[in-house]
């Protein structure tokens, strides 16, 4: 991660999201670094007083940001996705907050944004969050369902894997699609679907029945 001093520089380093997308704004990149790390701390369910305080202060900070409640305007959209993933781990009992964010997300097509326009949505990160929520949340499942045919086509399609840019074409994206679709009864057979690199240098998804 960049140091605090480096992150304040105009051309500070950006790290890709876990699904490979490169944040287009510093608002997203800086919050993604912090909230993903804090989410790991929340996953530990630690009794450590310092960790509890860190997470509490983070929750209070998010309460005072627009993206902490979900904001679809410009660069806040991606940060809202990161915040939603954090809230789902840190405070999964806050169903009203999570559902409110998902209802606002439901108007966005995973791949094309709202009404067919391109809103620079980090689509695979968006899909990762939906796959994590779908086991217990019908709204998340409905969003996946509305995009299921396109997602299934993407899973089977061959993607060029460029060794010089492996994070961008990371096969993890195929697993994200597989995990999301497998939450639907129609695609339950995809739970054990395989992802492989073919001799033609492309990454494919293959269903196992």
What is shown here, in short?
The protein has 209 residues and is mostly helical.
With helices defined by DSSP (H or I, 4 residues minimum), what is the helix count?
Answer: 9
H/E element string?
HHHHHEEHHHEHEE
The shape is globular
Q: Output mean pLDDT.
A: 86
Indicate the structural class.
mainly alpha
Provide key terms for this protein.
globular; 3-stranded antiparallel β-sheet; mainly alpha; 9 helices; two-stranded antiparallel sheet; 209 residues
What's the helix and strand layout?
Blueprint: H1 4-7, H2 26-43, H3 49-63, H4 76-90, H5 95-105, E1 108-109, E2 113-114, H6 123-133, H7 138-146, H8 148-156, E3 159-160, H9 172-181, E4 194-197, E5 202-206
Give an overview in words.
With 209 residues, the chain is mainly alpha-helical. The chain has helices spanning 4-7, 26-43, 49-63, 76-90, 95-105, 123-133, 138-146, 148-156, 172-181, and strands at 108-109, 113-114, 159-160, 194-197, 202-206. The strands form two sheets. It has a three-stranded antiparallel β-sheet, with helices on one face. It has a two-stranded antiparallel sheet with strand order 1-2. Mean pLDDT is 86; it is low at 114-118.
